[in-house]
Design goal:
By secondary structure, this protein is an alpha+beta fold. It has 2 domains: 120 residues, SH3 type barrels (Roll); 300 residues, Fumarylacetoacetate hydrolase, domain 2, CATH 3.90.850.10. Helix content is 21%, strand content 25%. Strands 6, 7, 8, 13, 14, 16, 17 and 22 form an 8-stranded mixed beta sheet that branches. Strands 4-3-2-1-5 form a 5-stranded antiparallel beta sheet. A 5-stranded mixed beta sheet has the order 9-26-25-20-21. Strand 1 and strand 2 form a beta hairpin. The longest helix has 15 residues. The mean pLDDT is 96. The structure holds manganese (II) ion (MN).
Amino acid sequence: MSAGIDATHDPALRSWVPSANEAGSDFPIQNLPFGRFRLGGQPWRIGVAIGDQVLDLRLALEARALPDGLGQALAPLAAGNLNAFMELGPAVRTPLRRALSGALAAGSEAQARLAACLVPQAQVELGLPCTIGDYTDFYVGIHHATAVGRLFRPDHPLLPNYPWVPIAYHGRASTILPSGQAIVRPWGQRRAPEAEAPELRPTARLDFELEMGIVIGGANALGEAVPIERAGQQVFGLTLFNDWSARDVQAWEYQPLGPFLSKNFASTMSPWVVTVEALAPFRRALSRPAGHPQPLPYLHCEADAAGGAFDVQLEVWLSTERMRAQGLGAHCISRSNFADAAYWTVAQMVAHHTVGGCALRAGDLFGSGTLSGPRPEQAGSLLELSQGGKRPIELPGGEQRSFLQDGDEITLRGLCERPGAARIGFGACTARVLPAAPR
Ligand code: MN
């Protein structure tokens, strides 16, 4: 068995929740992701997705439907506080995962009591899964960095620091939005190619970015560097993440300090955090392209090099107002994979983020950066798919897109599958574009 794989990953395991056993369900019993939900204006609660249901962990605690001895894990969850639960670390959440797996498995004695703690997902509002403290957006997608670098700087697309430093900028947590909440086209300064002065306008180059969200579960003290050997344990789990971008604003403002208003108006996060424990069967090596230097020692350990990457298949779906009016379904405009796209692992991100002494806290969020695959049709942004706006993509119903128009809706999806493991998914990360507000 590979590291971290136990009976909870057994592909033969079935649940007494029938929808969890349906082929194609994102949330079979082998997944058990955490999220925050509420019913009709009631306080937020923490739940676990199982099939098309949510297991309400507060009700489960009150009903004494889970084995004794889980009080330390269940108390913060029953209080609706995922952050406090994440801080407890793998030593507390692994036994909870095993208990949930046993209680939700077909034939469990807990079925009668737990069945009363299920709420259909269709009836609940899903929010951000936790309180997000600080947000850092990385740039680990090497194919994206190369393709975008070529558009902005044809002569030297990949900057010389890229193979050495996990590049990132600090973003804003205040504009991270739950899936389903519409985003508003932002205003910003943009300058036409031949113009002398910029103008304040709504962006004409609104884009999505296909990213993964990395939810930090463990804190480190100010001044303490987390060594690469332990860095993976600081990560609670992964979500889908759409880092909306205004490309015309970005092109004008990004030098010398990086993105600002082009990125700080909205990012959309999927509601369910798939834990690193659930992802154990889908770890693999991250390979560096030939000729690239080996990372500095603080960014390298054997275990991370051998299994630091996550094999997550990613998809981007676009639906326009006209497509919906014509009864056409959403159209898949790109497919990629986290492991194929990333140049650095999440452990390397944590090790680098803390090596200067920065304190991370439970609930901090990393964006991976845009996860474009190696081929042009695997690009994780319209900037790349349309080659900087020069070659619009074709959509069903006869429309074209270089960048997003009002009414467009982007949905990200992610799933993990391989022979010998149960397929697990991430649900959806979706949001529609609303017209710019008056200024
Ligand atoms: Mn980004």
